[in-house]
Design a protein that fits this description.
Largest sheet: 8 strands, parallel
Distance between the termini: 23 Å
Radius of gyration: 17 Å
Number of strands: 8
Shape: globular
CATH superfamily: Glycoside hydrolase/deacetylase
CATH topology: TIM Barrel
Helix content: 25-40%
Number of domains: 1
Number of helices: 12
Order of helices and strands: EHEHEHHEHEHHHEHEHHHE
Strand content: 5-15%
Length: about 280
């Protein structure tokens, strides 16, 4: 039998709601995840952060930079004048036109990093973005500048949510979303690497975030046509009232949780000769 390949399976949205955080911790304890990204602006982050400490060394914990859900950790009079972040639908066109305040964004990135370190006790292993906002114009250079200013180059890796076009085209599930994000991500890996940050090579896991596609199909496809140093994204968790008030992805999180803890998922990894690993 040949050697097993490493792949990072990263659960997004830790801290979004207690049910999501609990589901992620359970999977990590089972060895069915190897990374998670934390939404440190959310009230659920300080409540659940301590549950990750016993998992150090077993999973990578990163900052899931959030500029579209909940409230900022400080004043953002231009981006969030009401004290609530804009939706991605509102943020995206402004970012593409470069009509968002770089100074406010840099300050909020700093605040979310500080909140991460205060609760977790060490800097993030990696940084990505909720709804992939970290690759957008204005936000992208602000993030790289803040991280470099903190001396994180060479220590923290950045998640590139794009993949080779041939790989994307061979995965029908979530293909349209993957192509859009690839377009938005153009040049991100190059800019990150030029600043001294490693990035993954290969990204998958785009899915409808509803029950229109069964979870086994989502993951069987996500773990196919992997790049040299791949990350697979997932969104498992339990549904609670807190989550219902914040996010439209509900039942799909439970379906992902149930599949990832199943014998079938273990069999999938074995059949594909893959090993979940916390580092690139």
């Amino acid at each position: 039998m040949g050697s097993f390949r490493n792949v990072i399976l990263c659960a997004d949205d830790f801290g979004l709601a207690d049910g999501v955080s609990r589901g992620i911790v359970e999977l990590a304890e089972m060895g069915r995840l190897s990374a998670t990204g934390a939404m440190t602006n959310m009230p659920g982050w300080p409540r659940a952060a301590g549950d990750l400490k016993p998992l150090r060394g077993r999973i990578a914990v990163g900052l899931h930079l959030n500029l579209t859900t909940g409230s900022p950790l400080g004043s953002m009079p231009q981006l969030a004048p009401s004290g609530v972040f804009p939706s991605l639908k509102d943020l995206l066109p402004k970012a593409l036109k470069r009509r968002i305040p770089a100074d406010e964004i840099a300050q909020e990135i700093e605040r979310q990093l500080v909140a991460f370190i205060e609760a977790h006790g060490e800097p993030p292993a990696f940084v990505d973005g909720h709804q992939h906002v970290h690759v957008l114009p204005v936000i992208r250079p602000a993030l790289i500048q803040v991280l470099k200013g903190r001396g994180y180059a060479g220590r923290v890796w950045l998640r590139d949510p794009s993949d080779r076009i041939a790989s994307i085209l061979r995965r029908p599930i979530g293909r349209r979303k993957a192509l859009i994000v690839k377009s938005l991500s153009r040049g991100f890996a190059r800019a990150a690497q030029a600043a001294g940050f490693r990035t993954n090579e290969g990204f998958s896991g785009f899915a409808p975030l509803d029950l229109s596609v069964p979870a086994p199909c989502v993951f069987e496809e996500a773990f196919s046509t992997l790049g040299p140093h791949p990350v697979v994204m997932c969104h498992p968790g339990y549904v609670d009232d807190e989550l219902r008030a914040l996010d439209p992805a509900l039942e799909s999180r439970v379906a992902e949780l149930e599949y990832l803890r199943s014998e079938a998922f273990g069999d999938l990894l074995t059949a594909k000769q893959l090993k979940l690993a916390p580092t690139l």
